[in-house]
Design goal:
This protein is of the alpha/beta class and 159 residues long. It has 5 helices and 4 strands, in the order βαβαβαβαα. It has a 4-stranded parallel beta sheet with strand order 2-1-3-4, with helices on both faces. The longest helix is centred in the middle third of the chain and has 20 residues, at 92-111. It is globular.
Length: 159
């Protein structure tokens, strides 16, 4: 979904206890990821939720950190991954983006854990900044809506 046609969403109603979400972020581009985190926190707080935040070195570490978090005794209701990869002059971008997306998808499909995936994969920093602003098109906020929607389904189906 592109940023321009993304729907404006209201806070997701979550039955049961207030949601506790673990945010795993790769703040390599600190201003961009910080903006995404701000958007995500707004959405989570509007739903009555809270967020614990941990940092990893880069986007490549997101799937492994998610796997570790799933094994940890944190008792989180859902997980939100935030990061940004900007295309450079080499193939590194393609390898990192593919590895991270495949790793996250494998964990998601295997576990069914409520997950929001907010990894920006952009051609330049201007595109990343545009997707991390506090203007209604924040990809961190969109990822927070996704994790809350998945959590609502999990609770609805008593999983």
């Amino acid at each position: 979904m592109s940023t321009k046609d993304a729907p404006q969403r209201a806070a997701t109603a979550i039955a049961g206890a207030p949601p506790r979400v673990l945010v795993i972020q790769a703040p390599y581009y600190a201003d961009v990821v910080g903006g995404m985190l701000h958007g995500a926190r707004q959405v989570l707080e509007a739903a009555g939720g809270t967020a614990d935040v941990v940092d990893v070195a880069g986007a490549f570490e997101l799937p492994a950190a998610l796997r570790m978090a799933l094994a940890a005794p944190g008792n989180w209701d859902g997980y939100l991954l935030l990061g940004c990869v900007v295309k450079g002059e080499t193939d590194h971008y393609d390898f990192i983006c593919d590895a991270v997306c495949q790793g996250v998808m494998a964990i998601s499909a295997e576990t069914g854990v409520p997950l929001g995936f907010g990894l920006l994969t952009v051609a330049n920093l201007d595109q990343a900044i545009a997707r991390s602003r506090d203007d209604g098109h924040n990809k961190g906020a969109e990822a927070a809506h996704a994790v809350l929607g998945q959590l609502a389904l999990k609770r609805r189906w008593a999983l």
